[in-house]
Design goal:
Length: about 210
DNA sequence: ACCCAGGGTCATA
DNA sequence: TATGACCATGGG
């Protein structure tokens, strides 16, 4: 089993995922922060609150009183923390000049400055790089670690950068591929927990038996 | 009642 | 470098 074969099996089983579920790059960024250790259904609630208030843009979010923003973000959990993080992110985003300026930055510069924003760690930074800026950067999350470990492709406790480097070395450097692959891993983790038809292919069955 | 969810930070050793 | 505590709501 290689990373490329694993991708083929997941794609055959679940089909294209079309991630990230968002209308604009900025919405991807907001979602990436709000979904930290949080179920996506809860993120959708908060996102709808921001949209219905006409607040889903960097200026509004940045200018809002922190307590008001926290109240809007309540359904996502960690709402006080995420209010601070989201405002810090918007501060950086606005100061940099917004998406129309940032989209010309190099992968290296974008990633380094994203990681300097408080509350943005490696996974959130890579979510933003891959899904908002469409850069060929692979996102490593807990599901990826577990799946690789169960399939015997890795220990699972390797440093973030080690696993990211491995995906990026073994796969074609294509953002579209990375977008689908990460989405498929997440979808697989969700599906594998509940009853569903068995795979007929033995290798696929192996994939399906583990999360 | 318990567990986990599309993490990150900080203190401690 | 490597654990543990902390942040907190909602669904199973």
């Amino acid at each position: 089993m290689t990373l490329q074969l694993l991708y083929g099996h997941l794609l055959a089983r679940y089909g294209p995922q079309g991630w990230w579920p968002a209308d604009t790059p900025f919405e991807v960024m907001v979602g990436a922060i709000l979904t930290q250790n949080t179920a996506w259904t809860n993120v959708e609630k908060a996102m709808q609150r921001l949209k219905s208030g006409g607040l889903l843009d960097a200026r509004h979010i940045h200018a809002l009183p922190a307590a008001s923003l926290a109240d809007i973000l309540r359904p996502t959990g960690y709402f006080n923390l995420k209010a601070v993080r989201l405002q810090a992110y918007c501060g950086w985003y606005l100061q940099a000049g917004g998406f129309e300026v940032l989209k010309y930055w190099s992968n290296r510069k974008l990633r380094a400055t994203l990681l300097d924003v408080p509350g943005i760690g490696p996974e959130t930074a890579d979510d933003i790089l891959l899904y908002a800026f469409k850069r060929p950067v692979f996102v490593i999350d807990a599901y990826t670690r577990r799946l690789l470990a169960r399939l015997g492709l890795a220990r699972g406790d390797e440093p973030y950068e080690a696993l990211r480097a491995r995906f990026e070395a073994e796969l074609d450097r294509k953002a579209g591929l990375y977008q689908e692959y990460h989405a498929l891993i997440v979808e697989h983790a969700k599906q594998v927990c509940r009853p569903r038809p068995r795979c007929t292919d033995c290798v696929v069955r192996r994939v399906c038996a583990y999360r």
